[in-house]
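for the writeup, i need someone to sanity check this before i put it in the appendix. the sequnce is what the collaborator sent (i think, or maybe the updated version? ugh). structure was predicted straight from it, no edits. if anything looks off just tell me and ill rerun, i have time this weekend
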Amino acid sequence: MQSFAGSCADGSDPVKSISADGTYFVFECSNSSSESTTVGNQEYFEIINLTSNDDKYYMELLNFSASKIKNIPADQKTLAVFIPIGAYIRTIENDAKSYGMTSDLYEVLLTQTQMDNVFKKIDDFYENLGCANYYDAGIETTKYQIKNGIWTSLKISLCGNKNLIIMIFNETLRPTNAPFTTNWRDYTLSHVTLHETYHSFQKKIIKNCHRVDMPHYVFLIEGGAEYFSTYYMLERENRLDELNNLMLEQVMRRGADSSTLVHEGEPHMKGLAAINLMIQQGWVEQSSILDGSFFSDCRGVRQFLLGSDKLKYLNDNWYKIEKHNGNYRFNASMSDDEAMAQKYRIETVSIEESYEDILLKSARIDAKQKISGFTFTQMDFHKMVKKDGVLVKSAPETEITGWYQFIPKENDWHTGIIFFEKGQLKWKNEAGVEWNLQPDINNNKLITGEDNPYQTEYEPDFMIIKSSEKSKSVPQSEEYPRHLFRLSQETVPSISNIWFQKLSTENLFDIKKDKILIESMQKNPLDVIAHPGAQFTPGLPIEGSSPVVHKFQINKIISPTDVHIHMSGDNWFSTGLFASAGQKITIKVPKDLVNAGLKIQIGSHIWGDYIFNHMDMRRFPYITYQWNLDQSEVIVNSSFGGLIYIVDPVNQQINFPKTSSWSISGAYLAPRYIHGKTALNDWKNEIRKYPAPWAEIESDKVILTVPSHAIRDLDNPDDLMEFWARAIDAAADLASISRVREFPQRYVTDPNWQWGAHAGYPIMMAGPWYPYLLNHKKIGLNYWWGTFHELGHNHQMNDWMWDGWGEVSTNLWSVYILETIAGLERKNTWDGMLLFPGKRQKRINKFIDRGRSFAILQADPELALEHLLQLQEVFGWELFMALHQSYHDKPVHKNVSDNEKIQQFVIRTSQITKTNLINFYKEWGFPIERSTIDFLANFNYPSKDLAIAQKIAEAIKSSEKSSSKKLPDNSKFSRNRYGFKCNSGFKREGNNMCTKDLAIAQKIAEAIKTSEKSKSVSQSEEYPTADYNTKLDEVCRGLINNSWNGYLDINKNEFNSKGYMFVVAGEDGRCESGIGRAKENALNECTKWQEENNIIGVCELYAEGEEVVWDGSVWDDSVKASKSASKEVSTLETNESVDYVERLKQIKALLDSGIINQDDFEKMKQKIIDTMN
């Protein structure tokens, strides 16, 4: 395989040097040649490379491109930036900040420091090239894309002949040493790099050549770059003989529709076809595309776009591509329909008379009875017949020889022919692959041999389908092929096979294909088979257990008199039964409820599209299905199975008579505890042992759906349900609604999520979070906050929810329930210690420093919660109860603006408290209208000053009544301190070193802040003292428990069991972690999260592969370094040689820059004066 060594114009290697500012490498070809044309072809590239690939990899690609281009301007300069990103997160359609395109957001791997350095280098490049006065919005767009991890590959033209190439991509495409290899990932990255580099040599014809009478011609720009990259990728692999075929096949598969070239969509594919057609017509020399000279002036472009019929010819024919004798070609005589049939050959395909056709006329083999096709590789191939050169379905016939096709046809392997050649029966597909067949008519099969490429993957033989047989997997009413699922036990997403990245086209196809087949099967329950993913989620009943016949009643009378929370969607009634995947369920419906709009549902896990489009995938997305109960007896079957529910659509409001009797047969008993009805002994001795893999703990307030293994040892469900009854009632009280619920709230844990939750009906919780539904004895500084946060979403009122407030007001329910029902102190409610007094004070101080903008509140739910807590700490929870009641009594009008909602909120809270709160809300940056001020002035309410500066002490006094209180036992996690922090006068260098910090002004500021701490809370209370001998895995036990299994899965499936995990434990007990394929990547990720969360500590190697390797040695070194630093700073602080004048200048500079305020300045100045004395 060839590489790019010696890729300068003269055949030499580029010379690597350091840029003028010493921050990055510059690669330049030498100017040894005396010919001016050679000098003109020099291309000086500068690189910013933060990927794990060697710089040389990219430089070979860049300079190779330069060596092929003709007449490069002498002042041409290009900065190429290569940025790695992590796992796929979500998609933004029509992203206005990214050229209005669809933006795929991935995990950002760069630390803030790395990102700042990249931005500085880009700005410096821009400025040093004389572009500083030439603003280009592309620079800001590039920074936006880097900040948000948006997968990108593009070239931006700057001023003059200056360019920026930006490539942001996932490191799973990391190349090997040689750019051109047969590895498709290497091929893709190399191909895209060549494509974008070519753009940097195209003259900026869009700006220089455009005229108002010219159509849009981006197809030429993109087509030229695609032709260049495709050509040289094939040349380097000695495959140029495939150039035309490969190009036209790609166009057919990806771009062939009858729209014009200037139409939106796939311009590089349309352009590739157009360039190819221009070359074939003799209008353009191939060499002018490959050396870029076609784009060196405007003549080449304008000849196709102005006063010429060439553009019309290209528009009419670029997509008219056919396959002829195994090769692709343009055919201008084709109609649009014929051209489209070539692209979308699903049920028909044009086929020329072939050698095999001729052989068919001379040999036949009789199957003894009529056949309709055969099954091979779990797919049905239908008997076809040729009519007018087109294959169509054939009626069953006795001859085995002939044409066959899998429908829908997706590739050339799906159409083929069985024929005799020299006495040997053969199969040959359109891809040109063939193998021998041995007839075994008595056993209804054609035996294949070792030349069958699928010999070891599936059932190797062709199994003949007789016309009288019906496929067991095909719905009788459907023409869907009888092949099994695309996904197998090994490939289906699961906890052990996580699909981390945004789905590829193949993944997308597999899932959608399986979904179509499932839905088609389920129309006829006799045809349903279990999907391979069912064994993972929802799982299967305990082996050896048997289905039952179960009778039950649903006693529910709708009472519309009370105020309830009405959730959109359906209301589910549990049955305590579980359907196993692929097993028929029969339900007998009460006579008076047939055709009443009820449905039967199998499965608890919803949000299929949400999972499919936005999340890492740990289960098949679509596993829950419903059927109408429109007959007295209904038979259903699910390919996945799941808990069984009777569903009452919310808009039906159906009453269930007490005499209604239901019966379900074929299902398995599931553990189900109904508070107040199920006998405790029955639960302990029998029910909790039922075989279904999912269980439900239920009351009239809430239903908890969790894995059965989580409740096998649950001895006291009554105590749990009583706690939940109090919590749900508390949620109702805060929302000012009736405690009597029309339907219970529902929680379901979902194995697909490893962290997080989603409100709605049901509330979906991360799979590992079932302890935060069941273990109510261990609440505090953990994810119980999230449990009630989602409950808050189901209760919060839209009347006072404006932009940014959806994640703010919901947190009131977390605080209220955890304080009043769980009995926690406020500071111990939110995980991450986010409500510790010091953290609250820090958030507010930062808000003040940033100018108290309302937009800041809208973007920061943690900060915005503070103003609500202030109101509560002065006026009590009754304020919010009365506020919600006021909205029930007098709702705001529909479709009111956010501003109107804000004014109403200000007025109502003032009226309820009989206090004029205008000044309070102004301090919080609320946009208060004059009409609101004038309206409240009419009431002569006292204006209680809740100034933010005064509030800090008030809030701490009210919420932290005693500074000597000890944290409760269940808060051990927050008592631990770990890591190290450089003492005053020193700064941190690397991971565990402290060196003298010459920024004495900053040292003084830190000293003053330490000495001026609030008297109302002690440091020992906010950050309790810790045993420095505490082990890392004890301090971070919560984080490690939640992260370890996920790391093991990723390590096994992505890192080939050779990954790394780093953990940092902060002085305040907070922890973060980072993982990666390489040690450096894992450390960088850990450092990124450490910096983002302001955790003071050291990122330490915790695990290599699956082995925990942490031994505490880094901590030991850190303690020694910290103690040594403490002694040195003591000496520094007493050094009489300090230049006091310089120190005063430094703190004055801090004041002038806004880092400190006037009060801080005066204190710091006095501190310096005192030192002088």
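The first strand starts at residue 15 and ends at 18. Residues 1113-1133 form the longest helix (21 residues).
thx in advance!!
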